[in-house]
Specification:
five-stranded mixed beta sheet, mainly beta, 22-stranded antiparallel beta barrel
Length: about 700
């Protein structure tokens, strides 16, 4: 076996015991020419190989029972074949050209596709889980891609000069209003869902489809897995908690249930935080996922998740003083979706969802309570008359009821009920072999404003060579004003942004390079009227504005060094905003002008172990010193983080087992992310500077994950 790409992760999608399957053969095209670099692997496992320069491969597996072998190669239709148990098989596999995706141009501006079926594959589900800085968090892995910012004390996604709320998450097409776990100030959030729930992601950093709205800067589109191959039980033991799940596979259906309990008590004693927690953080998660296959291509899915988070964390109020902030948060999310082909050319899809969120925060100044109820319904049709034409149309309705109160201020209860109704239509077609065009429009009605905003979208792509293409995208995007401001002023305009994107991409022989430049023009951002009380509607206006421009570079190489997969991402960002309480247009405090990420993973076959590293660096972010007349003229230290991980595959009592270790900030760099200042001056009349930094110098995760067939 020349190459074995046995990549594994903290998930249990595969079930194995020591088995006896041996396959060797050759992968060729229709002209009988060898295809070097083709991926050959068993479905629903991470066991596979890569064809060599002559198209030859050899694969020996310990899998038990009959398997399905899949062969993929960029630009060719995937090939699948059944392999009997205990087989010693020789194969000659001929792949057919996939004219629609490779020989013809596709639109890639502003989009990072991570679905295995996408030509624009950049990361897949395995990449997300094995990226050291991600620590199993989808958003953590996405922060190694260009266009994202490193706001380590927050944990959410900040994309191309946009705030975190400007990036929306969609699960099977349905928006999730609260995709992050709740947290207290200066402690990072994480995504509520494990990456193992999803078969692919589409990360739109701008200029994305008219099918999706209410996202000013970015859309993260997640697709849950379809029917699993078989039933199994999974168990995970970590230094931060336990997890377990059971999946039952029926003939044309499946149902999974899982639970997680995390308590940082043990971890805090092994790796003490900078400031002791009054009560160890506790988090409980539950999830039920069901799928039913109908007919040949229909699929119904239902998903329910529960998340409860409780902690009492120290919060610095001056250079020397701290108060305890207590958080008690509960989230319920449910969605159900359906898709099916009505005929050879028509497809129907749709779904409904609900999101309930209840946050209670106790501080010395009083208690805060936020409750949000969100529901969505959508239905659409796709018309696919040929491989070169696709028409997508539908309707999207949303309802949100938001309530919030602050006990520190008498009678300061606020809230809103907002209903939006949108339609969309989008036409995508190809002109000859070298041009692709996508035209779309999304009119959206805002009930509180009784106003319609029309958002046009346009994307063009031209193939410039056998392995390269140039893409251009433009789009207008609208989003409700942030909840905390809309609750006090119901007449705030929807915030708007125009995106202009130019993209060049070159992909050849498992090496991908792309460069993308963009410009974003913001309008109607919320601006504070400082002459009014902050609890009156007049305090909030829609007079803010801003811009964002920059260049993103990305290079990934899975070929040059055998068994090493690495990528490099760099972003240059220039952005300024005149919004909130800013007296002038300046760069916000969450923005670093330069950001670099390098990620590598190396598999040592003889050890059954994969080692990974992630290095991220970012230039200092601006912050404001209220003791000086200038605004936002200070710079925080340069940020850097080197993280390592290792995953060892073994069989414990005949069960597929992974031993996992991850260490974040290995070098122990102890510089603040940024600074903030005390709200009231001290006895000397000075607002004291407070460093915002990680609670622990290094993060350490140890785990054992077992899958029982």
């Amino acid at each position: 076996m020349k190459k074995i790409q046995l990549i594994f992760l903290l998930t249990f999608l595969s079930v194995t015991v020591f088995g006896q399957i041996s396959i060797h053969g050759k992968v060729v095209d229709t002209q009988n020419q060898p295809l070097p670099g083709a991926n050959i692997y068993f479905e629903n496992t991470y066991e596979g190989a890569t064809s060599d320069s002559d198209g030859i491969f050899q694969l020996t597996s310990q899998l038990e029972g009959a398997q399905r072998l899949k062969v993929t190669f960029l630009g060719y239709v995937p090939y699948t074949v059944a392999i009997p148990a205990k087989a010693d098989t020789a194969l000659v596999i001929t792949l057919q050209p996939e004219h629609n995706k490779v020989d013809e141009v596709v639109i890639t501006a502003g989009t990072f596709g991570t679905d295995d079926d996408e030509q624009t594959v950049t990361l897949n589900a395995i990449d997300i889980l094995t990226t050291p800085t991600s620590e199993g968090d989808i958003y953590g892995a996405l922060r190694t891609l260009p266009g994202t910012q490193q706001v380590a004390e927050d944990g959410r996604l900040f994309v191309r000069g946009g705030e975190a709320y400007e990036t929306k998450t969609f699960i099977d097409g349905m928006e999730m209003q609260q995709p992050y776990s709740s947290s207290t100030p200066d402690l990072p959030s994480r995504g509520r869902f494990s990456p193992e729930l999803f078969k692919g992601t589409l990360f739109g950093t701008g200029g994305y489809s008219a099918e999706y709205g209410q996202a000013l800067s970015s859309a993260l589109i997640l697709h849950t897995i379809d029917l699993p191959k078989e039933s199994f039980t999974s168990i995970g033991l970590l230094n931060v908690g336990v997890q377990g799940g059971y999946t039952k596979r029926f003939d044309k259906a499946s149902v999974s249930a899982s639970g997680e309990y995390y308590n940082l008590g043990l971890n805090n004693r092994i790796n003490p935080p900078r400031n002791a927690f009054a009560e160890d953080p506790v988090q409980m998660n539950g999830l039920v996922h069901a799928q039913v296959k109908s007919g040949k291509q229909g699929m119904w899915k239902a998903l329910y998740s529960f998340n409860h988070h409780k902690l009492i964390a120290p919060y610095a109020t001056s250079a020397t003083d701290r108060e305890n902030v207590a958080l008690n948060s509960t989230n319920h999310y449910v969605n159900t979706t359906y898709r099916n082909m009505l005929s050879d050319t028509w497809m129907i899809y749709g779904g409904v969802s609900g999101d309930y969120y209840d946050d209670r925060i106790k501080m010395e100044e009083g208690n805060y309570h936020i409750m949000d109820r969100y529901s969505q319904g959508r239905a659409g049709l796709k018309y696919l008359p040929s491989e070169k034409v696709k028409i997508n149309m539908g309707v999207d309705a949303n309802w949100q009821d938001n309530e919030r109160s602050n006990e520190a201020v008498a009678n300061r209860e606020a809230g809103f009920t907002q209903r939006t109704l949108a339609t969309y239509v989008e036409v995508e077609f190809q002109l000859g072999e070298n041009w692709a065009v996508r035209l779309g429009v999304r009119p959206e009605y805002f009930d509180l404003l009784q106003k319609i905003e029309v958002a046009p979208r346009l994307s063009l792509a031209r193939k410039t060579g056998e392995h390269s293409q140039l893409s251009l995208a433009y789009g207008a995007f609208y989003q409700n004003a942030p909840d905390e401001y809309l609750a006090f002023n119901h007449q705030l305009n929807a915030e708007g942004a125009g995106h202009f994107i130019l993209n060049y991409q070159y992909s050849r022989n498992k090496r991908d390079f792309r460069i993308e430049t963009y410009y974003k023009d913001y309008q109607s951002l919320v601006k504070f009227n400082m002459g009014q009380s902050e609890y009156t509607p007049a305090y909030y206006t829609s007079s803010g504005s801003g811009y964002s421009k920059g260049v993103d570079l990305f290079f990934r190489d899975r070929k040059s060094i055998p068994l090493l997969d690495y990528w490099i991402a760099y972003s240059y960002l220039d952005t300024k905003r005149y919004y909130r309480d800013f007296p002038t247009k300046v760069t916000p405090g969450f923005v670093a002008k330069n950001t670099l990420s390098v990620v590598g993973k190396y598999w040592i076959a003889g050890w059954n172990t994969q080692f990974g590293f992630s290095f991220t660096a970012a230039s200092g972010r601006p912050y404001d010193d209220p003791n000086t007349p200038a605004f936002m003229d200070k710079k925080a230290p340069v940020y850097s983080n080197l993280s390592l991980n290792a995953s060892h595959l073994a069989y414990l009592f005949g069960n597929y087992t992974i031993f996992y270790c991850s260490v974040g900030n290995v070098l122990g760099r102890d510089k603040p992310y940024t600074y903030r200042y005390s709200e009231t001056p001290n006895s000397a009349g000075t607002n004291e500077r407070i460093p915002v930094q990680a609670e622990t110098l290094r993060s350490i995760i140890l785990g054992v994950f077992i899958q029982i067939k």
